[in-house]
Each structure stands twice: as structure tokens, then as C-alpha cells.
Design brief:
- Strands 1, 2, 3, 4 and 5 form a five-stranded antiparallel beta sheet that branches.
- A hairpin with a 5-residue loop joins β2 (about 110-115) and β3 (about 120-135).
- With about 180 residues, the protein is of the alpha+beta class.
- α4 (about 65-75) packs across α5 and α4 packs across α6 (about 165-170).
- It contains six helices and five strands; from the N terminus they run αααααβββββα.
């Protein structure tokens, strides 16, 4: 069942699967003016990890995702959080064998920190990712948003996609009504 849940969330079509996994794993920064100083340091720390490790080792992106994500997905998959991480890493391995990330681009000026109903800080981060299929050289642009959120004093980043809304709402009920800025 775990693989079924994983594939359900990542899509059945191989390109949808590739895009979903890449979007889940891509993590990016928010503009300095949007954050209070302590939050800015936390986001900067995430970026140091991203720039030093994640670009070279995409598996490191898992470290930037909220631990609650793995708890919720493990429950849906009837497995443990660690087992779900292993399944996700295996999927990532297969994806990065056939596709590469060419570039990331953000509109940092449009990232703004907002407070949820309980005072949790969060921000939508517009992004464009350029991907290249290794076998054909075909390139594609993927536009979307990352959701940066604070949990227990630490910032995490996860892809925002309408299909992830129920997962995020289960993780953080105060974020159940999130809408991407227009």
C-alpha cells in the first residue's frame, strides 16, 4: 500500500511523477525584508544547507521538510516515517537517473511572511524550475510555489500544490485554508 500512496501523491504518469518529486524536493529562499531577524537567520541556515549540499545531493532536501510531513504520509501509507523516507529516497533516485535540474528562479520580491490563525509564520515563495530529461535533452519549465513555514521555532520548506493541501491541513490545522497569492 505504501507505494500506492506514494505514487498517488506523485502521479502515475512518469513526467508527472518526475515533476512532483522534484517540486517536493526543491527548496528555495525568501527575501530578507520579509522576515524578522531571528526568522531570517533560520531561513539563511536552510539556504546554506541548500547551496552547500542539496544541489549536489538532492536527498538532503528531505532535511528541509517538516518532520510532520513524514508522520502524516507514513500513516497514510501504513508504514513508519523512516520507511516512508526510504521510499521517497528510492523514488528520488529513479527520478534523478532520468532528469536533471538545470536551474531555479525565484521572484523573491513577491515572498511575504504571513501569520496563521494561531500566529504561525508562513510564506509562499514563487518559483520557476527548469528541468531537462537526460535521454532526450527535452527541457521544460515548471512554475509553482514553495511553502515556507515555522514549526516550534524552526523554518521548513515544502512544495505547495493543491493536491498537498489536505496533507498540510492535517499537519497544521491552522493552515487548512491556505491559498496561493494571486
Amino acid at each position: 500500500m505504501g507505494n500506492t500512496i506514494l505514487l498517488y501523491y506523485f502521479g502515475k504518469n512518469i513526467m508527472n511523477k518526475l515533476l512532483a518529486v522534484l517540486l517536493v524536493t526543491v527548496s528555495l529562499s525568501v527575501s530578507a525584508s520579509s522576515f524578522e531577524p531571528d526568522d531570517r537567520k533560520a531561513v539563511d541556515d536552510i539556504f546554506v544547507l541548500w547551496e552547500e549540499k542539496v544541489i549536489k545531493e538532492p536527498h538532503k532536501s528531505i532535511e528541509l521538510m517538516p518532520p510532520k510531513f513524514f508522520d502524516v504520509m507514513a500513516k497514510k501509507s501504513n508504514t513508519s516515517a523512516e520507511e516512508f523516507k526510504k521510499m521517497m529516497l528510492a523514488t528520488m533516485d529513479s527520478v534523478f537517473e532520468i532528469v536533471e535540474v538545470v536551474s531555479y528562479n525565484l521572484n523573491l520580491d513577491k515572498a511575504e511572511v504571513v501569520k496563521s490563525s494561531i500566529g504561525r509564520d508562513y510564506a509562499f515563495i514563487p518559483q520557476v524550475t527548469k528541468l531537462k530529461q537526460k535521454s532526450t535533452g527535452e527541457e521544460m519549465l515548471v512554475e509553482g510555489y514553495m511553502l515556507g513555514l515555522e514549526d516550534e521555532g524552526k523554518w521548513y520548506i515544502i512544495n505547495w500544490d493543491p493536491q498537498y493541501a489536505p496533507i498540510i491541513a492535517e499537519m497544521y490545522p491552522d493552515l487548512k485554508d491556505l491559498k496561493v497569492p494571486q
